[in-house]
Write a structure and sequence with these properties.
single chain; about 550 residues; mainly alpha; two-stranded antiparallel sheet; two-stranded antiparallel ribbon; about 40% helix
């Protein structure tokens, strides 16, 4: 594997150029060039202004180019190779003001300065379009889009760092000097800003927007998610119920295909980052970085960057809907992969499973290159499992062609209707207990995967347990689990113990023996006194003395 990844992504330079112009001291030019984009002509043409807004969308998470995704920070998965920061820093809680510890492209997503650059672009767009002579309907919808995007970028900062400075005007160091530096708003103030922006933008957005764009669903899903994250359950229930009642989203009947290129046409996808289709530009390298490492002939066709843990595997139910710890479930520990629920087979590659062009053996002693890696010898899996979800082993392009060609064209889903149902069920259960609407929301999720309804008569605590298990399985490998551990305040429990894999050996008569062992790279540390927030970079505090550091750093 090449440890240093060289990305050749080309983004629009329009917004960067305009921001540069606005940062400079005011100078009047005698001639307005007609052969280039300038601050003078961008805001007189709706099409060009829309290009500026399109560039803001490139600030959304580039999750299909994360070779070491946020999922690896949780108890759901381990990175299959040792050098990324999730193995070196995050899981050992070594992040500090001098070293945030983010890995690869995740660094660009969670970086303080990057997000404030995105926010500044939104502020520029809102200010210029508000003052423009564009048609009123264009101004109304596009400003609403920009407000939701700005709220989304603030949400990233808020979840990562807590309360942050709320800036809605276009700042200019040349003319304003040190007054461009703001103190931190409180966490509650930041939350209030995000939710208010989303609520106010909702009515100005289309019910079903153009592909990849912000609509009513994105605004309300973001609002409801932030309310859930903050434990404002009544508000979260109301926001998510609004999507259920007022908009035309529905569960896709095919869970597996939802995450492939078909997802662009799905009525389940609410908010997502699009990747260009073949022949039309840049895709992603997802297929060649996170899936099963070796395929037919021993070719390394992926890096194995996401190895599911035994802890996650054990939360997949049996096909009768019962958890494997239920003595009446029919679970057979000598045949642990038989009669499991559909999402297990749609999400996990296990020993003896077929993927792409080969049967994947992770068992020990049969000469397989995918044998569980207990010593970090190469990129073979650490846990005895690989990820299948989000990968199409019938059409994907693997190996070097994917690494350098960015040939993965799946959307990266940020919010989908399945999560809205889960968010509503969780919030409503906390408010009112397991009423019929809670059962209805969860059972829709289960029915899609051919599982029976949850049993009647669950207590509030029992329903909470059921919802959390359902959420873990349904949203696996969508970079949600870490933030759930944070908001539930159980990261100090789940991330302070070793994560496990399975070492499979062949016993007498060919019977397989399953030995559950601590996985290489599965040792975790989490310090409750500080790690529920990340440190604000010292380089940022050095520039702005009004900022205070998070506790413990």
């Amino acid at each position: 594997m090449i440890n240093k990844i060289v990305r050749t992504s080309i983004y629009l330079s329009l917004s960067a150029f305009i921001i540069f112009l606005q940062a400079c001291s005011d100078k009047v030019l005698d001639v307005t060039p007609t052969d280039r984009l300038t601050d003078a002509n961008v805001w007189t043409d709706q099409g060009t202004a829309d290009l500026f807004l399109n560039d803001i969308y490139t600030g959304l998470p580039d999750g299909n180019n994360w070779y070491d995704p946020i999922e690896n920070w949780s108890d759901n998965s381990i990175c299959g190779f040792p050098w990324p920061n999730s193995r070196q820093n995050i899981q050992q809680s070594l992040q500090s003001p001098a070293n945030a510890g983010f890995s690869g492209d995740v660094s660009n997503f969670l970086d303080w300065t990057v997000q404030y650059t995105n926010i500044r672009k939104c502020n520029v767009f809102i200010s210029k379009v508000t003052a423009s002579a564009f048609a009123d309907d264009f101004k109304t919808e596009k400003i609403a889009e920009a407000r939701v995007l700005r709220a989304y970028f603030y949400q990233v900062l808020w979840m990562t760092y807590g309360g942050v400075p709320i800036i809605t005007e276009v700042l200019n160091a040349d003319t304003q000097g040190d007054s461009i530096f703001y103190a931190r708003n409180t966490s509650d103030e930041t939350l209030q800003f995000i939710t208010s922006e989303c609520g106010e933008a909702y009515n100005d957005l289309p019910d079903m927007p153009a592909s990849g764009k912000v609509g009513k669903g994105a605004a309300m899903a973001l609002k409801g998610w932030c309310e859930l994250f903050a434990g404002k359950f009544a508000d979260a229930a109301a926001s998510n119920k609004k999507i259920i009642d007022e908009l035309g989203y529905e569960l896709d009947p095919d869970y597996a295909k939802l995450f492939l290129t078909k997802g662009a046409e799905s009525k389940e996808a609410i908010f997502y980052r699009e990747y260009s289709p073949p022949g039309q530009g840049k895709g992603a390298n997802l297929d060649g970085t996170v899936g099963p490492t070796f395929t037919a002939g021993g070719a390394e066709t992926s890096w194995g960057g996401v190895d599911p843990t035994q802890e996650l595997v054990d939360d997949y139910a049996m096909d009768n809907g019962k958890v494997i710890t239920d003595p009446t479930s029919g679970y057979d520990p000598t045949h642990p992969y038989e009669h499991r629920e559909q999402r297990f087979y749609q999400s996990i590659v296990h020993d003896g499973d077929f993927f792409y062009n080969d049967t994947i053996f992770t068992r020990v002693g049969v000469g397989s290159k995918n044998e569980i890696d207990l010593t970090d010898r190469d990129d073979a899996g650490q846990t005895g499992y690989y990820v299948r979800k989000r990968l199409d082993d019938k059409t994907l392009v693997l190996g070097a062609a994917n690494w350098s060609g960015y040939t993965s064209y799946q959307n990266y889903i940020i919010f989908r209707f399945g999560e809205v149902l889960l968010n509503y069920a969780e919030a409503q259960n906390e408010v009112a207990g397991p009423d019929q609407s809670v059962y209805d929301a969860i059972n829709k999720i289960r029915e899609r995967s051919a599982l029976p309804d949850l049993p009647a008569g669950l207590s509030k605590d029992e329903m909470r347990t059921a919802i959390r298990r359902e959420r873990r399985v349904e949203l696996a490998f969508e970079d949600k689990r870490f933030w759930d551990l944070i908001r539930w305040r159980i990261a100090e429990v789940n991330l302070n113990k070793p994560l496990h894999g399975v070492s499979i050996t062949v016993g007498a008569g060919g019977a397989l023996q399953y030995n559950y062992i601590p996985a290489r790279g599965g040792d975790r540390k989490f310090y409750a006194a500080k790690n529920y927030l990340f440190p604000i970079p010292q380089s940022v505090i050095d520039k702005n003395s009004k900022l205070t550091q998070n506790p413990g750093y």
